[in-house]
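G., the chain you wanted modeled:
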Amino acid sequence: MNKLKFLAAFALIFTAFNFSSCDNEPLDSAIDPNPQPSGCVAPTSFQASNFIGTNVNLSWAASTGATSWEVQYGPTGFAIGSGTSVFSETTNVTIPGLVTTNTYHFYVRSNCSESEVSSWIGPISVGTSTGGNTSGDYWPTAINNQWTYSMNGTTNPPLKMIGTANFGGRTYYKFSPQSGSGGSSGATGVTTWLNKNNGVYNLKTDDMTINAGGMTGTQTGFEYIILKDNIAVNATWTGTYSQTTSLTGLPGMVQTVNYVGKILEKDATATVNGQNFTNVIKVSIRREISILGMITIADEEYWFSKNVGVIKSILSNEGETFESILVNYTVN
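Predicted structure as tokens:
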């Protein structure tokens, strides 16, 4: 159980080591409300992202044998079979026409043939928000922009933007691969991407290879919203994503992270590493991490300075605190 607890915090700790190329959190397996035995395998890594206005983007990882997928959604707590179904032949879909004041549950399953489907995975919960127009650029995106952070007194390699790619019709900026280690944990070549869309900042992390407490394996990537600069102080956003952790000698674990982001301050000032920053937005993110019935809470705070990027972050998890501060930066 101690090793499971360690795994639940692994990615969070990795984030602290490399500032915020994302946090690689584990979490509880999604529960199928309508299980049905089948040789058709359910998809994994189901997540929602970029929920702006009345739309939300959903994505998942394909399983062997699947030829298409069915997404079903409805108001929070709806019964499978009573929701709205959307069919897709790709592993992502955009759901339009949501009501901005409502919260929704989403499920997905694989279709392997006309007569064979997998069990459902989900739900993931999404609350939409209309927001407003962006209030500035709080994480400048350009090739060769870079930021160097010190975590608990140890300076890490620069976090540098080295390229771009298109995912789901959106442009993401790629950060240089990062590596982290802490005690007996480590991850190598972790790649993170940043997308901005009218004041909404999404961080996407690719699959990674991990060494957690002496156990080696892989963990699938995820995406979440780290900032909305277009909403007011005390406004919040919510999201859910799932991951699959596969460790040598152990069965794969599907995990789900529920998070809530909140704007704590806007137009603030902050002094970091002896330098004064203005036009600062302070954000909190609380993640509920569950694995095999065990719940872990991780609290994060981020300070974003206009036309600079993240100048400070604090992660608190299981009695440990990791503070990253900006040492130097170059933006174009």
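The first strand starts at residue 44 and ends at 52.

Shout if anything looks off.
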